[in-house]
Design a protein that fits this description.
With 265 residues, the protein is α/β, with parallel strands linked by helices. It has one domain: Alpha-Beta Complex (Spore Coat Polysaccharide Biosynthesis Protein SpsA, Chain A), CATH 3.90.550. Helices cover 32% and strands 21% of the residues. The protein contains 9 helices and 9 strands. Strand 1, helix 1 and strand 2 form a beta-alpha-beta unit.
């Protein structure tokens, strides 16, 4: 019974895609239209109706009409399928503000039963949306489910190995990440989204602690393997911001979570 999986009936799922860092004023930006196109090709469902919510700063989105892989052209092509929304945010908005904007729209303007967050530099497997929604609907305490980073086991040039990655007994850890995350609507509604943070690692651990206090768990699961491309977090979230968030977290919870600046690659 512990391994029983509820196969989720057809429903509505809001997929939030924060286009944080997709700015044309960044020299040699590692996230671009080709990366976005590769990621979005796997954002579909065989079962559910998807609302895709893009959060971006419209003034700095790459716009080259002659290039089919220009970010704006990639977004336009994805929007032709319908059920998409583009939400504007200021150029100086933090990653956390991108997520907050998407979450508020999903909860207030859609009737989605599930909320999914997908960073637009993270590869998911074919069928990954359906898999993570079903796992978040399992009858256990894990109510926020994140994808499991298998990049340490797979080379960047071997995506066939990534698509074939499976384990007989998928490993699950008590952890959380915004790279690929899903939760039922009622969980999203009760998350106390803390506006006091400027960096994503501390917002993640804050949500982890908040869910734990309510008797629920956050996990990463190999049932949903992910392959994050390189993203230079330290170019956007400074050490000063990171240490300010540490002080805020310690004041709020009374302990230091032991996070290290620049630990994400």
């Amino acid at each position: 019974m512990d391994n029983f999986v509820n196969l989720t009936a057809k429903g509505n799922v809001a997929v939030i895609v924060p286009l944080y860092g997709y700015w044309n004023d960044i020299q040699d930006n590692p996230v671009n239209g080709e990366v976005l196109d590769t990621v979005l090709k796997r954002v579909y469902s065989h079962v559910h109706n998807l609302y895709i919510i893009f959060v971006a700063n419209p003034q700095t989105i790459e716009n080259d009409p002659s290039n089919p892989f220009s970010v704006l052209n990639v977004l336009t092509a994805k929007s032709q399928a319908g059920n998409t929304k583009n939400l504007p945010v200021p150029r100086n908005a933090t990653y956390n503000e991108y997520i907050k904007e998407g979450m508020e729209f999903a909860l207030q303007e859609t009737n989605s039963q599930f909320i999914v967050i997908l960073n637009p530099w993270v590869m998911i497997q074919e069928g990954g949306i359906d898999a993570i929604v079903d796992r978040s609907n399992r009858a256990d305490d894990a109510k926020i489910v994140s994808g499991y980073n298998v990049r340490p086991f797979i080379t960047q040039d071997n995506f066939q190995a990534f698509d074939q990655f499976k384990t007989v007994v998928p490993k699950e850890d008590w952890d959380i990440n915004f790279d690929f995350m899903a939760m039922p609507r009622y969980v999203a509604e009760m998350i106390p989204f803390e506006p006091g943070y400027s960096t994503h690692p501390f917002l993640q651990v804050d949500i982890f602690q908040a869910m734990r206090a309510k008797g629920f768990a956050c996990i990463t699961s190999q049932q949903m393997p992910i392959f994050p491309f390189d993203f230079p977090w330290t170019d956007y979230e400074t050490k000063e911001m990171f240490e300010a968030d540490r002080a805020f977290f310690v004041h709020k919870f009374g302990f230091d979570p032991g996070l290290t600046y620049g630990q994400e690659k």
